[in-house]
Amino acid sequence: MSRKLVLIFLIIAAALALAAVAVTYFLVLPAFVNFEKEQSLASLNRVETVLHAQLDTLTGASLEYSAWDDIYEHVQSPGEAPDYFDFLTEGDYWSDINIEIMMFLDREGRLVWGRMIDPEQSTDLPLQEHVPQQPEPDHPLLAHASTDSRIKGFINTPRGILMMGSTPILRSDRTGPIMGTVVIGRLLTAERIADIEQAVSVDVSAHLIPDAGLSDAARLDYESLVSSGVPIATERGETHTFSRKVVRDLYGAPLMLIETSQPNQISTIGSNSVNTALCFLLVVILLFTFSGWWILRRLVISPLLVLGDHIASVRESGDLSVRFGSDRKDELGHLASEFDALTQELSETQRQRDDAESVSRAKSQFLMSISHEIRTPMNGVIGMTDALLRMDLPENSLRLLSQVKSSGRILLNIIDDILDFSTVSAGQAIVEKERFSLRQMVSDVNSAVADSAQRKGVEYLCRFDSSLPESALGDQQKIKQVLINLIGNAIKFTHAGEVALAVSSEVETVQGRDGVTVLNFTVSDTGIGIPAPSLSAIFESFSQVDNGPGREYGGTGLGLSISKALVEAMGGEIQVSSEYGVGSTFQFTVPVSETIAAVDDGERASVCAGLRALIVDGYPGTRDLVASLLAELGAVADTVASTAEAIVALEAASHEGRQYDLLLVDNQQSNPDSAAFTAALPDGSLAAGAAVILLCNVTDECQVETQVGRIDACLPKPILRDDLLDAIITGRNSDGAAAKPGENRAGQRPQLLIDVLVAEDNEVNQELITFELSEIGARYVLVSNGIEALNELAKGAFDIILMDCHMPGMDGFAATKRIRAMKITDKRGSPVPIVAMTASAGEDDQKHCIAVGMDAYISKPYEFENLLGTISRLLHDTGQFDSVLDAAPLASMRELSSDRVDVLGRLIDVYLESSPPLVSQIGEAIAAGDAEAVRMGAHKLKSSSATLGASMVASLARDLEYLGRDNQIEECADVFSSLARAIEAAYSALEKEKSRSATPA
User: Residue 850: CB partners within 8 Å, gap ≥ 6?
Assistant: First the structure.
């Protein structure tokens, strides 16, 4: 602040100084200069006045000689000159009256008598050489219009400029008529000019025109004055100021230039005075500035700094009991007193806040503890139930176990809602920024909710705007949570009809930022709706549509309040519209950043251009959705509601010669005759040449070989554009044989031939995890705490560690820190992957696990498929797995083998022989930038790998196929690197499988 005030005072001082300088040099000094010019003009006017006075003297003198009767008579009738003329030539009379010429002229302008003398020698000069002897009658000196006429002026003579005055000759009583003219003249000599200078106290010069002695400026002034008619000009030089005036002769012609010159004393004195005053003013300004700053600093700034230091010390120490205690009576003292009062209030507020935070922490800790204690046994309940469901048990037992698992999931959801509510209400919801695929996120949501909708008999639709970006930066987990909550609610409150998710985007202005991409999510249903009185409170905590004692739907009433808080934390908005008995629509928006536009698949979609399709589905919403997607792909679709209508449509098309290219048949309850319909297709020609695509639920196995009749491809619901396009391409390329999709059959899992260290202290969870690991062929070592885990790691290397976080002795966090500090590696020398397995489900718990060195986080209770996926991902990313093989294809190959023929062994030999050159070709194509060669090679490798259950290789080959198809050659290198590691592991695993399946000698 002190520096700022110094700067402010300096700026003020500089501004005042500049203002003073500006006023001085733009107002004061010009005033002195103008005054000096005015004085010069006044001096010129005085010179002119003196000249006119001398001319008046000449006319006055001529008046004395023009009123004598003798002269009047003599001029009228010339004869012998009177004695008067002799008198005019005697002594020093002319020098006494200061004239050099006198003439008496008659009325015709003839000279009657005249004389001219030399002013220096006082001798006569020849008159005829200086003045005309016979002036014209209209000569200016003779042009007297009346007896009172006076004529004066200048004429140029060889002797110089002559000042002349004339009066008419009259009788002594001044009566006429006019008999002639008396002319008296005086030369404008240097002495007389000097007299004028003395009279006016200024330098005066008279210049005949032309005059070689004129300065350039005087000559320019003369020419300007003559041409413009302006009488006077003024010029200010470096040392003198000049004023000039053109004097004309009696004929009106320019005769001479009168010039006055006076030193620039006024402006010089004024400039010196102004500069002195300006210096004094600047000194005063500086003194005032620094004295004002000093006074302000002493009286205001210093006390404020002391108060600021006190505030800083209170802030740093956090001790709100310290008081400033100022005894000043001014504004600063009042400020200090108010601050002391504020700290006192804050001290009380802090105490209350600390008490509230203590209660909140105790509540959160209690909820976390309760959650942990419940999740631990729930992991055993749900896990063991899931294991029993995969066993060959009676139908009634499986149904009861399914109810147990469903009830466990409901209880788990309630616990999750309570934890989420605790986090949100405490303002601890942290918005993450990560790049995510929008299509994959929506696909994940569909996978999570479609099963419950289809089991309930509710049609679930997903409308995905084709203009949506491919990826963006945002918090996809929170978006998922909100979507699953809203869609789950819609399914729960809908008994018949549909639940639909629509996703779109637009560019808006959000919080003053232009061009922000905003994602729009709309969840609509045809359920029970929300009564108008309940609509305003729908987002409040513990609020439900059926809040009475006879509640039908259950739940905590926290889902919508949590969703609203999460949406607002992400910078979006959520709203609802509903009509009771008709349905509800929830819509929310989320702004995202750094979006990447979706890849144009126009070339791939071009295979659908012009295709004719027949859609057979009992639900109109599905028919309309599939028809609109086909229209986007360039196909033309007809829709029917049943197989009976489909047969009619097929017969009509066949009769008209316009066969269908695609036949999409629903396999749902809305179309119970689909099996018989597809079974009848091979026996007739109605669908000859058409690709048959079966629309099925995600809960269905949707396997082609299990269907009756010819099925070329399966398309699970909800249907998305990309899935539809994939199904069309697959169906069009199919030969109608029983294809072998890579989906696992129920009860079969991929085999992971790995060594696992399991650190778990709960006996139920120990039994569960070891049972699950045994099912996938993994070897394991079980320990109960971190110390035992370190002891086992000292004996040998493991591929992966499953680490419970809360164990007696040494917990999972401490053990992980020790493992990372000791740089313990896996079998291949890389840091051993560690998966956290904990019943603590908060975001902070997950971050803490990652912070101590764990690679992944699994919250109990978990689906083993999730744990299996995490293990596979970690081993795939680090190249630490021996093999990932699907059991189903291998089991099929073993069934085909016999004592005499080892089908599986032969297929493995072919694969081990053919795949290495194929992998090399793919690598060479990537290096050459040949996207089509990458696509073709990857497609071949994908098919052969899927046949033998090398699912990881098939998955990576599929990724390369898609990248080659989309001409994204730059992204192939990383995928190919992972493929090279995966296929080496697959070779090793297949060699082992070959040795196990070999026919005994």
Answer: 857
Closest C-alpha among 547, 554, 456, 446 to residue 500: 446
Q: Which one-letter DSSP state was computed for residue 82?
A: P
Under a CB-based contact definition with an 8 Å cutoff, are residues 736 and 712 in contact?
yes
Pick from 670, 672, 680, 678: nearest CA to 694 = 678
Which long-range contacts link 323-330 to residues 24+ away (Cβ below 8 Å)?
328/303
Amino acid in position 790: L
Are 721 and 625 in contact, with CB atoms under 8 Å apart?
A: no
- In angstroms, rounded to a whole number, what is the distance separating the alpha carbons of residues 660 and 653? 7
Structure tokens at 347: 């001290």
Sequence-ordered list of residues with C-beta below 8 angstroms from that of 708, at least 6 positions apart, any chain? 675, 676, 678, 679
d(CA 818, CA 626): 56
pLDDT reported for residue 881: 47
pLDDT in tens, 943-990: 778 777 777 788 788 778 878 877 788 878 878 887 887 788 788 778
User: Residue 256's beta-bridge partner residues?
Assistant: 208, 247
- CA distance linking residue 375 with residue 839, whole number of Å: 5
Indicate the pLDDT class of residue 501, thresholds 50, 70 and 90. very high
Helix, strand, coil abundance in the chain, percent, nearest 5: 50, 20, 30
CA distance 866 to 847: 19
Q: 837 to each of 274, 417, 652, 866, how far by Cα in Å?
A: 90, 20, 61, 12
The structure tokens listed for 638 are 């007809």
Cα 661 to Cα 695: distance, rounded to the nearest angstrom: 16
Cα angle 42-47-52, degrees, rounded to a multiple of 5: 120
Nearest to 521 by CA among 585, 597, 434, 473: 585
* Helical residues (DSSP H) of 189-252, grouped into ranges: 190-200, 216-228
The span from the CA of 527 to the CA of 581, in Å, is 7
**In whole angstroms, how large is the CA radius of gyration of the chain?**
59
Burial class (CB in 10 A: 0-12, 13-18, 19+), 666: buried
- Residue 920 CB-density burial (10 A; 0-12 exposed, 13-18 middle, 19+ buried): exposed
pTM score of the predicted model: 0.47
Question: How many angstroms from the chain centroid is the CA of residue 755?
Answer: 52
Report the alpha-carbon angle 908-911-915, nearest 5.
Answer: 155
Q: Residue 744 burial by CB count (10 A; 0-12/13-18/19+): exposed, middle or buried?
A: middle
Tell me whether the omega of the peptide bond preceding residue 177 falls within 30 degrees of 0, making it cis.
yes
Region 990-1000 average pLDDT: 66
**Residue in the structure block whose two tokens are 């009066």:** 167
Residue 724: which of 681, 667, 664 has the closest Cα? 664
Q: Is 782 exposed, middle or buried (0-12, 13-18, 19+ CB in 10 A)?
A: middle
State the distance between the two ends of the chain, measured CA to CA, in whole angstroms: 97
The single-letter code of the amino acid at 971 is E
User: Residues 535, 576: contact at Cβ < 8 Å?
Assistant: yes
